[in-house]
Specification:
The chain has 15 helices and 27 strands. The chain is of the alpha/beta class and about 600 residues long. The chain has a domain of about 300 residues: Glucose Oxidase, domain 3 (2-Layer Sandwich), CATH 3.30.560.10. The strands form 7 sheets. Strands 1, 2, 3, 12, 13, 14, 15 and 27 form an 8-stranded mixed β-sheet that branches. α10 links the parallel β16 and β17. The chain is globular and about 75 Å long. Bound molecules: flavin-adenine dinucleotide (FAD) and 2-acetamido-2-deoxy-beta-D-glucopyranose (11 copies).
Amino acid sequence: MQLTGSLLTWVALVGPCFAKIYEDVSDLPGLEYDFVIVGGGTSGNVVANRLTENPNFSVLVLEAGVSNEGVIDSIVPFLVEGLLSGPNIYEWNYTTTPQIGLNNRTIPYPRAHILGGCSAHNGMVYTRGSADDFNRYAALTGDPGWSWDRIFPYFLKTEKWTPPADHHDTDGEFDPTVHSTDGINSVSLNGYPWPIFDHHVIQTTRELPEEFPFNLDFNSGQMLGVGWLQSSIGGGKRSTSATSYLAPKFIQRENLHVLLHAQVSKLVDPNKTNEDLTFGGVEFLQGESLFTAKATKEIILSAGSVGTPNILMHSGIGDSKALTALGIPSVLDLPSVGQNATDQPIVSAGWSVNSTQTVDSITQNMTRYDEAFAEWNRSHTGPFVEVGATHIAWVRLAADSPIFENSTDPAAGPDSPHIEISMGTGGAPNPAGHAMAMGIVVLNPTSRGSVTLQSNNPFDPPLIDPGLLKTDIDIYTAREGIKRAYRFVQAPVWQDYIIAPINALLNLSTEALDEFIRNTATPGSHLLGTAAMTAMNASWGVVDPDLLVKHTSGIRIIDLSIIPLMPSAHTQAAAYVVGERGADLVKARWE
Ligand SMILES: Cc1cc2nc3c(=O)[nH]c(=O)nc-3n(C[C@H](O)[C@H](O)[C@H](O)COP(=O)(O)OP(=O)(O)OC[C@H]3O[C@@H](n4cnc5c(N)ncnc54)[C@H](O)[C@@H]3O)c2cc1C
Ligand SMILES: *[C@@H]1O[C@H](CO)[C@@H](O)[C@H](O)[C@H]1NC(C)=O
Ligand SMILES: *[C@@H]1O[C@H](CO)[C@@H](O)[C@H](O)[C@H]1NC(C)=O
Ligand SMILES: *[C@@H]1O[C@H](CO)[C@@H](O)[C@H](O)[C@H]1NC(C)=O
Ligand SMILES: *[C@@H]1O[C@H](CO)[C@@H](O)[C@H](O)[C@H]1NC(C)=O
Ligand SMILES: *[C@@H]1O[C@H](CO)[C@@H](O)[C@H](O)[C@H]1NC(C)=O
Ligand SMILES: *[C@@H]1O[C@H](CO)[C@@H](O)[C@H](O)[C@H]1NC(C)=O
Ligand SMILES: *[C@@H]1O[C@H](CO)[C@@H](O)[C@H](O)[C@H]1NC(C)=O
Ligand SMILES: *[C@@H]1O[C@H](CO)[C@@H](O)[C@H](O)[C@H]1NC(C)=O
Ligand SMILES: *[C@@H]1O[C@H](CO)[C@@H](O)[C@H](O)[C@H]1NC(C)=O
Ligand SMILES: *[C@@H]1O[C@H](CO)[C@@H](O)[C@H](O)[C@H]1NC(C)=O
Ligand SMILES: *[C@@H]1O[C@H](CO)[C@@H](O)[C@H](O)[C@H]1NC(C)=O
């Protein structure tokens, strides 16, 4: 037994331990590279992959978190809750500041602390946003390179469209002309059927076609309507930037090194003698010791919407008054760093249903659960290949909504939705029986928050304020979203299926509905805008449209923090294309 045990350990350590992912800084060949990428997350690994296509470039990725190898809760889609239900070793374990819009609740704010970043623990929903969203970025930055037509090829470049795990006929469930089968990161339709629920959703698009039309593919740039869910899953397994962009054939490149357990504290050796500010390298902590990695060409910050502004501020880049007050010498006064933080609030509505084709039939029955897990282990099929969401409805507020008397329309254009209603047979808090649930999302919040510092210690967590539900139109949109969700299930097809709402929200007073929302809403964890990209000559913002930090040279930001306004979508697809275009901008400078 002892022998078997140690043999297994040996295989586990040696088997997947690809040569170029280092756990210990002393194993690195050196600490000077052309490019140092801070954060091996969703965008960072895209950049690492693309830059090392050129054998002349050497790249070091510094990732604070742990290895993703063999992390079963990350690999098996159905087990994602295990990563998100409290502090764990794959998490930064952040908590928000008291949220005024949520009756002063403080809530956990998940951020991944694992190679692959948030792509390794997120909900895997794959949504690109609307054409309007990207055209608005192009208009705001004055760079047509951010428009939908120019970004669309990058969506194809990242995407490896993959058959679903059950290999069902997907005709009529997506539009193949807007997808690519030869990109890197797997995307697929659901691989386990929920026949009754699936039927009822599609039937609703026939019974209520005005309000809920069918949309063959909401990732085409035209999002409105109801379509089949697409997820970053391939072959029944989660696809992350680590499993895809750092797959064995890439990580074996001689010029690509990744160091884990390396938490960057700040940029060091500022030099202001020329027009622009430069930094010589980055300081990082591993174990008890501080080290410095030097970048001869560029330092690329890909630490995400919390990590990136945190590192900038500890480096003296931010609001100079606020930094000086904390005893951090100001190097560059850039007051937008960490400001305009935006996230989407989510509220849930559930209904008990007269059906056993539900996720709770699996999670509340250990025999069934074990069978399903064993099936996944055997063949990567069965209910564990997904999370139990099936479709998304994207809807607009009515054009004559009274809220528009006093609030301007926050959507990017007339074809962009204000509200997302994602639906499935899982996710409802219903211990008593079987249930379906909807997640209602305010897609374009006008509320803003911030990421700021509580001290000058770079290893203290920053103060995270996603600023949820502070404006009239945000709470109005949440209320309207709940009403739309209830309208959806008023289609006749649901009559014999739905037994009762879990919380009767339909006839509540506005005040009571607001209380429900403020007491139950959670953050979408789609934070962005904390290192906003603006036009070259803008009076605010953190990076120029080429992603170089304003008034500096040799420091770029390539992650979701640069997106200035929320897309009408979940945000991982945006993080992937920011990585792709960002890498091309770097290559254009140095090749
Ligand atoms: C719980 C949750 C669920 C989500 N669900 C979905 C979903 O279903 N669909 C979707 O599209 N989007 C979803 N998102 C959002 C999406 O995953 C993120 O917007 C996106 O992955 C962000 O990518 P990024 O590269 O900007 O940052 P990240 O992927 O977070 O990468 C940042 C990396 O930098 C590392 N890092 C940070 N600071 C340091 C430092 N000082 N030194 C070294 N390394 C550092 C981090 O450990 C991390 O690996 C979800 C997010 C969360 C948190
Ligand atoms: C790498 O450098 C060599 C020598 O300078 C040059 O000939 C070659 O074109 C470069 N390769 C690429 C892909 O840039
Ligand atoms: C988060 O909490 C877990 C459990 O307490 C801990 O093991 C882990 O180290 C924490 N993460 C960080 C980044 O400190
Ligand atoms: C939330 O906190 C603020 C500031 O402390 C306070 O003014 C407000 O009354 C609080 N709101 C609730 C609902 O407790
Ligand atoms: C600062 O930059 C200037 C101009 O690029 C260079 O001459 C000088 O050596 C640098 N100083 C330091 C301390 O690196
Ligand atoms: C926040 O964004 C708005 C535009 O949406 C801009 O006018 C303002 O200057 C920004 N604030 C900061 C501190 O960057
Ligand atoms: C559930 O459906 C069955 C028929 O399919 C019916 O006999 C039963 O009364 C229904 N139960 C409820 C609670 O509606
Ligand atoms: C639990 O699951 C097993 C295996 O699928 C099934 O035989 C059994 O009927 C289920 N029990 C209940 C209470 O549904
Ligand atoms: C699945 O496989 C893993 C390891 O490969 C094992 O630890 C686990 O017990 C298996 N689970 C089931 C339900 O078969
Ligand atoms: C708009 O603002 C005006 C002035 O404050 C107010 O009288 C009116 O009720 C508001 N309209 C709506 C729909 O809230
Ligand atoms: C809500 O009110 C409508 C009419 O105002 C009524 O027909 C319906 O039964 C009520 N629904 C609930 C769940 O109370
Ligand atoms: C900034 O540049 C844009 C185009 O790049 C131009 O339209 C605008 O007028 C400029 N604004 C200022 C204040 O110079």
